């Protein structure tokens, strides 16, 4: 919109033929000359609307509401009307189809679904789906492609009703072209199981991306190729095909310029959509991740990034009863990271600070696949089977120097592993009739982790514990293998009592069997090995976890209040067999939960959740033989570890006023953790031994967030804040230690569009961190003004510049200032499929950025080395 044009306000109210106000009616103003939408409004609870219009122009006013005949009338914007313009809609006796009506509506709310007509909100400079979503009210898209709506994370992304790479948001937001998107649907309480539609207890949030009609039954996407000095290269292809029966998506990428199509972090977070059945019953058994110790490279913490990806997603419906779907993802990464960190150890007898210089290289090849089939012979019956697998070959090489007081050590640490897992799931859902519904879900998972850690140290590591006989450099190797077999089953019965009440009875079981073996040896200078056969340096452990439970859930509705209390009775049995000693425990627990939601109206709600959850640990916390974790850290399990008990309360508020586009949401979460599993830490100078234990002091955590967003005629303004305060307790060198961690961040942002040529975002963010232990405390601040400018000029040229300035303040180190700027110049002739681009990253050639972190015994501040300045010339062709 042009700021040079004088605006007048067109306001009024919409009612039905009997005089009742109509909330959520869409009022559109169409410029009669350009035939384009000039403005729109959605009526408030009083039926009111207001639209800023350019003075002197004639508009076609259109009003739409589901179940009513559309209204049209010409209006000349002379002056702001002082008397509300009254519009009356007549009921549609022929009941026009929703599709015809929705096509006219910028925003439509129907139950738990909100539909946005994206062309009303977009500015014209969007390139991928992520750009489109950022233009919608209440949407947030982070740098990794994750999506939040009103502060709540999106669980799944669908394209024309079909899951896109198992609902992965990153692959969707960074690859789906913006110009193919017609509408975006927000699906609250998402549930794609037809027999359960009447008893839906889902809290998932999903997005359904509806494609434009001319993008169906054709192949679309884009191909990019780029090159630059110093052997920089980029190749990328997105290709998509959609029709009523077949969906195929292909994404391929290879580059060394830091564009992370798929990372190691993505590999470990991908679950294939599988989740624990027992989690919904208040119980959690977590298998320790095999990503521990692997540095996760991102664009803002790595010196060199080389990534390759090939990903295929398919969805085929040969008939209305059968659906076959799945994906295959192969990736390769070769990343180098470097940093200098100042490390302060809490309650360490020697107060000197360690300076650790580190360079790490991670190389990996990984593959993921999923195949599934769904059979739906009728709306009352659904049966599906899915298999999901992961395999990888990961190598992590590190070269470090540790300086502590007068002591300096050169360290090499190399970790290799080839983990794999496969999981199968069978589910069946049957609605016997409208009042009796049954479901069965069963799964089996096998997972193998086999990390091998080789430590080479100029000084003798753990000299008082590990009897090494060689000379410097000392060469120590830790072997470990963990095998997990886990099976779950759950049977649910739903009884619909009436329209506002139903009950859910569930019976379930989780059984996990694990084995862990570990040993270590020293490699001597003459090529021989020194194997350590001491019992405390080896592990041979068998471990089983069993959970049998029965649960009852009751859901009822009182006008606008929905209450869902539940009780879950669990019987647990844990056994650990090692060194001819069997430990473990039996326990029976009753775990309650409550969900309450009050809907003031469709877009205004308050939600309360309370639950008590039992958290159980896996075999790695029970294995009592020592395991080397890093150059200065050993870990010893504890056969007496028991479960933790978490009390969690969270409150979420959501208010989206489409009349004036004021969007307010926030939340508060409190967790009280009883018998929490923490570590006893024994220090010997820098070296430490960590042993898990159930702490008898309560750990607590409080987190909160708040966001307010307002759209004006030509501007969008937002302000958000996040807080996190935690109190955790552990034991360091026989001394009880309380850690207090308080982190807060604030961000203000203003966006505007001038003359449809200049797009400007600018703002200011600040993050504050305060870490406290028994004998130390540290404070960190980072102040960051930022701006993004995009300018369209001449015919087909576009310049985009991203800039941020950082002032990093540390309590113990000098203030560091650094700034980052990226820029790109694009050219595309109107109507052409070709685009040419020159881009430069890190134009100021900043060498490093600052960050800080906190753990139970360590406070660190880092300087990460990042990619140096580079240039790239890219050609793109739209398919």
Question: Could you explain how this protein is built, in words?
Answer:
With 879 residues, the chain is mainly β. It folds into 2 domains: 1-102, Immunoglobulin-like; 224-878, Maltoporin, Chain A. The protein is 3% helix and 64% strand. It is built from 5 helices and 52 strands. It has a 36-stranded mixed β-sheet that branches. It has a 6-stranded mixed β-sheet with strand order 8-9-15-16-13-14. The protein is globular and about 95 Å long. Mean pLDDT is 89; it is low at 96-103.
Features:
Maltoporin, Chain A, 52 strands, CarboxyPept-like_regulatory, 2 domains, single chain, Immunoglobulin-like, globular, 6-stranded mixed beta sheet, mainly beta, 5 helices, Outer membrane protein beta-barrel domain-containing protein, 879 residues, 36-stranded mixed beta sheet
List the helices and strands and how they pair.
Blueprint: E1 7-16, E2 26-31, E3 37-42, E4 48-54, E5 58-64, E6 71-76, E7 85-89, H1 98-102, E8 107-110, E9 113-117, H2 118-121, H3 129-134, E10 139-141, E11 147-149, E12 152-153, E13 156-159, E14 162-163, H4 169-173, E15 181-188, E16 205-211, E17 219-228, E18 232-242, E19 246-255, H5 264-269, E20 283-285, E21 304-316, E22 322-345, E23 354-378, E24 381-404, E25 407-417, E26 420-431, E27 436-449, E28 452-457, E29 474-498, E30 501-523, E31 529-531, E32 539-558, E33 561-578, E34 581-601, E35 604-616, E36 627-630, E37 633-635, E38 644-657, E39 662-674, E40 677-684, E41 687-694, E42 699-711, E43 715-732, E44 735-754, E45 758-772, E46 777-793, E47 797-810, E48 816-827, E49 834-841, E50 848-854, E51 858-865, E52 870-878
Protein name: Outer membrane protein beta-barrel domain-containing protein
InterPro entries: CarboxyPept-like_regulatory
